[in-house]
């Protein structure tokens, strides 16, 4: 008797669906120099294309596709864009500082 592929089994570590709500979009753009740390992001590297900066944490492995959709429920966020005053792009992760 077979088991459905959606059922988590022993050893299954990835490709599970997760749902999170109320992730606010803080910044969108394609100016990579503005957001790339000097040593790159841990387990990812450097952003090379367009990006989306979200408030909060996003679950899932690095470099894996994250699907977003328009919200069904109304969020309590104000409609105007947030003002970002500082982005930390100094050395991190013990990178080579030469």
The main β sheet shows up as:
2 strands, antiparallel
Structural class: little secondary structure
Principal-axis shape? flat
Strand order of the largest sheet: 1-2
Total DSSP E strands: 2
Output the radius of gyration: 18 Å
Helix content: under 10%
Residue stretches low in confidence (pLDDT < 50, at least 5 long) are: none
Mean pLDDT over all positions? 79
Strand content: 5-15%
Q: Total helix count? A: 1
Q: Can you write the helix and strand succession as a string?
A: EHE
Q: Terminal Cα separation, in Å?
A: 60 Å
Annotation keywords:
single chain, 98 residues, little secondary structure, two-stranded antiparallel sheet, 1 helix, 2 strands, flat
Structure description:
The protein is largely without helices or strands. The protein has a domain at 21-46. It is built from 1 helix and 2 strands. It has one helix at 32-35; strands spanning 25-29, 51-54. The chain has a two-stranded antiparallel sheet. The longest helix has 4 residues, at 32-35. It is flat and about 60 Å long. The model has no long low-confidence stretch (mean pLDDT 79).
Question: Briefly, what is this?
Answer:
The chain has 98 residues and is mostly loops. The chain has one helix at 32-35; strands spanning 25-29, 51-54.
Blueprint of the fold:
Elements: E1 25-29, H1 32-35, E2 51-54
Antiparallel strand pairs: 1-2
């Amino acid at each position: 008797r077979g088991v459905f592929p959606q059922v988590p089994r022993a050893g299954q570590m990835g490709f599970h669906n997760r749902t999170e709500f109320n992730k606010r979009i803080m910044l969108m753009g394609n100016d990579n120099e503005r957001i790339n740390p000097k040593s790159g992001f841990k387990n990812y590297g450097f952003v090379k294309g367009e990006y989306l900066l979200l408030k909060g944490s996003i679950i899932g492995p690095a470099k894996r596709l994250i699907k977003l959709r328009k919200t069904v429920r109304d969020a309590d966020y104000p409609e105007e864009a947030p003002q970002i005053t500082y982005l930390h792009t100094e050395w991190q992760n013990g990178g080579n500082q030469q």
